[in-house]
Design brief:
6 strands, 31% strand, alpha+beta, 4 helices, six-stranded antiparallel β-sheet, homodimer, elongated
């Protein structure tokens, strides 16, 4: 298990898998959570700046989360305690049915929490690519990570 | 149809519906997109700072999107063209199975785009509440809105 103390700022991790986005899943997610015409209807989408049916941005973000969890599992489980939030989530390009997504995670900074000695905060940049190498999404994610030895002071 | 010109900065909109979060849906979403133990397993969740099984933050964000789309449909359709991104997404409190969510949307600012005369950018603050009136999530969302009369100059 990887704890707060094991995180090395500057580490760049490429997701262990990629995620194929199917048309069926795009429609299913959009039907449930983002039923706007350009996520559900080919003709309506063709008339917009997207040009064709595209995935909800929240779907892309959710797929990114899945890629990250799988990466932790495939490499070494991280003692993650969830996230207090995201800064600067950017949907750079549309994601289309048939696209295959992967993510690159760079650890930007980390610090111990003042209020909870058993937790640390990490900040990492996630860059999501499609199969052409185009960036489709970026975000700055904040993570809560368990500290292995809370009684030991440290940055 | 509500276009860019019709948006009034300062307008506060309460979602037209609420969304009941079921345990089944929490597990289904987490299984697909965020398979961390505290979103899937009661015992594992009880051992974390969440205290009990909670919804993925991406699930809460996706439900918020659904509440917004339904509100646009129920009130007056908005000529939305998607979103370039979100600033400061914050998961303030956990969302638990059985919770009922609603959202308040405040239009903070708007401006015409320089690069596309037929589009405007809006910035709005979304505050998501549970059935107790507790804030569970906030975000600053950026929206692209169609301009009704692109040939007319304006802010």
């Amino acid at each position: 298990m990887k704890y707060y103390e094991d995180l090395v700022v500057g580490t760049l991790t490429r997701s262990s898998r990629s995620y194929k986005v199917t048309r069926e899943e795009v429609m299913e997610f959009a039907t449930k959570y983002d039923p706007q015409p350009f996520h559900l209807d080919d003709d309506a989408a063709a008339k917009t700046h997207f040009g064709q049916l595209s995935a909800s941005g929240w779907h892309t973000a959710s797929i990114t989360m899945r890629l990250m969890v799988d990466t932790w599992k495939d490499m070494e489980p991280t003692a993650s305690l969830g996230s207090p939030g995201i800064d600067e989530l950017r949907w750079v390009k549309p994601v289309f049915p048939g696209d295959e997504l992967s993510v690159e995670i760079e650890l930007i900074s980390k610090r111990r929490m003042n209020s909870r000695r058993d937790m640390g905060l990490s900040k990492s940049k996630q860059t999501v690519y499609n199969q052409h190498g185009d960036i489709v999404m970026t975000m700055l994610g904040n993570g809560l990570i368990q500290v292995r030895n809370p009684e030991v002071d440290g940055e």
